[in-house]
């Protein structure tokens, strides 16, 4: 008697057209959404929690730039626009205080604000793809060639900062923390794909057809450069927590010099001992009812 392995013989897997993943950005995003189970619930969590994400942005920007300037291989890219050459820059290595880095911090700030905005339009994902493309050395004017290892590491670092800070939020309910972290992680992983795809050789047999399908919407190469990418900053919030965090607390904590609160985080900016990366630190210190390993 044949063994029943519980196989449903009538089952048909969903078809995914391989070529479309390479020649159509829309189809690629559709597939990633389906695979990662990106749903309206994710959108809802992002919309209602965007104010918490936005509070983290100054801290994220400062920490990311500290990190990028810490290693010569990434710091050099701000002189040479490439990580592929180990030639020493002619000028001194840049520091966080230099105007060039201040300006670049602004770009990253815009990007992160954009990340907290409406992800329901295709323009949102097109923008992420453009950021991927512009780091791949394929722009005709002033190419920027950042090898994938640094982009992946940088995204991982950003994800870690968001996760730590949101997990440690003293007042957000667990349900909202979970929803917000899952949603932002899905976006970060799609951004990761949109960085990686410009560096991989997968699907290269369709290379000639990519530009026709992926950029048919009027977005030209270099579209991002120098162009303000912010839309409306309106945000809705379904506040089911004990209270919302005063927006002045977190950004001001980190927008200048890094905070020196000794709240136990392991992420330690250079020169400061045991500084928490979490911009809600002040809030928690003043809120004795909060008990987490980070906060007391
Ligand atoms: C998480 C990864 C990253 C994101 C989201 C990101 C985002 C951005 C954005 C939005 C811009 C400005 C685009 C424009 O409007 O012109 C930019 C420019 C730039 N990025 Fe990145 N970046 C990432 C990683 C890196 C890394 C790892 C490096 C260096 C190793 C780097 C080096 C640069 C440089 C040199 C520019 C050009 C700045 C200029 O033209 O003045 N980026 N990046």
UniProtKB/TrEMBL annotation:
Pfam families, per the entry: Protoglobin
Region Disordered: start-end pairs: 247-279
Biased composition (Polar residues): 249-276
UniProt GO molecular function: heme binding; oxygen binding
Domain Globin-sensor positions: 26-205
Endpoints of the signal sequence: none
Gene3D superfamilies assigned to the protein according to its UniProt record, in alphabetical order: Globins
PANTHER family with a match to the protein in the record: GLOBIN-SENSOR DOMAIN-CONTAINING PROTEIN (PTHR42071:SF1), PROTOGLOBIN DOMAIN-CONTAINING PROTEIN (PTHR42071)
The protein, known as: Globin-sensor domain-containing protein
